[in-house]
Amino acid sequence: MLRLTRILLFFLALLASTATRAQTAYTIESIPDPKRTGGGFVSNPDGILSEGEVQQLNGVAGQLEGNSTAQVAIVIVNSIGQENPKDFATRLFNHWGIGQADVDNGLLIFSVMDQRRTEFETGYGLEGVLPDAVCYRIGMQELVPYFKQEQYGQGLLSALIRIKTTLEDPEALEEIRSGGGQQYGRKAFQPVPGLPAALGWYIFVNGLFHLFLLLWLLYTTYSKQDLYDRYRAVRRVYFFVFIILFPLPYLLVYFYLKYRLNYLRNHPRYGKETGKLMHKLDEQADDAFLESGQITEEEIGSVDYDVWVTDDGDETLILRYAKRFSKYSACPKCSYRTYYHAQTRTLKQATYSHSGLQEQIYSCKNCNFQDRKLITIPQKTRSSGGSSGGGGGGGSWGGGSSGGGGGGVSW
Q1: What is the third-level CATH fold of 23-184?
Q2: Which pTM value belongs to this model?
Q3: How many angstroms separate the CA atoms of 174 and 212, rounded?
Q4: How is the chain split into domains, by residue range?
Q5: Between β-strands 71-77 and 42-43, what pairing exists: parallel, antiparallel or unpaired?
Q6: Pairing of β 303-310 and β 277-280
Q7: Which DSSP string do the residues of 286-304 spell out, in sequence order?
Q8: What is the pLDDT of residues 111-148, one digit of tens each?
Q9: Between the ranges 137-141, 240-244, 374-378, where is the mean pLDDT highest?
């Protein structure tokens, strides 16, 4: 009986020890900073990702930083205890200083396994290019399907490649490098230290802001003569409201702008040359007036075209409506927005004695043009701090900051 009791106590102690280890929660300070443990972009202290997956992520993140100056940190841990992943991600982002200080173009992809949650935390300078809705969509389309199958490395890689494609769009690159996202980012709306927080001040400032927004809306809507120009002007206001001001008080403005966009796009118009009334063709009929590349753009959803014609066919008007966020960019050969990142292949694995080689394949859906880019996978480095993602990204983060932008997904 005594022996049985000892055996039982031993197993209870073993179980308690295992539970204690399983519940070990990371703090902001205890998560290994990959820039301090090898110079990479991935912190993987619990070994959830394989070394090969860490090297692949480092390769893509390193190329993104080289092309756009944007810095991406990938962190995956078993637990942060009872802390909220979103709040934790914001504090970790600012603790490390991800992104360049002058433009705040950093991104943190933070996964917590026991809470089954991944947060995409953006710096101020990326909020215009990667708003909450886009981060959520990337997470649901690229990351969640793989995570549900416990393919965590592949899910992170797929999401990172999608983000890389989005950020390397020519318009996005200009905004990221110039810090254009800060123009409408949360940093611009931070309260001035010492400003009274009384209700009267809030009502006064809020009233002025709404008046400014109304005047801006009226000006951008009616300062243009052409309906298409009006549509594009209102669309800019629409995205500003949707991405930056989306909270409930602005829902009426949001729905009004949505109605206004639909009205301007579909309202009957007259030919500029003949003055005759024009009508819009349906999606099947308008293909007869589009080039093959334009039809391909419509098929893959990167661009939508409206074709207006007069009843006698004397005048035709083709209007282009590009999708703001798409994995497709302009093809260097045919110029249509049908060019995308098709595949990444590892040609040679990196080891502790030599670097590896990776091939990224870009392809055009229209003209079948292909471009292959070779990327050096940094040589593996040994460190005493676990698998924190050595190699690939230089010595330190750039001193960027975040105000809580970005979105999250659960799996």
Answers
A1: Diaminopimelate Epimerase; Chain A, domain 1 (3.10.310)
A2: 0.52
A3: 27
A4: 23-184, 196-266, 268-328
A5: parallel
A6: antiparallel
A7: GGGGS-HHHHHHHHHTSEE
A8: 999 999 999 999 988 888 898 989 999 999 999 999 99
A9: 137-141
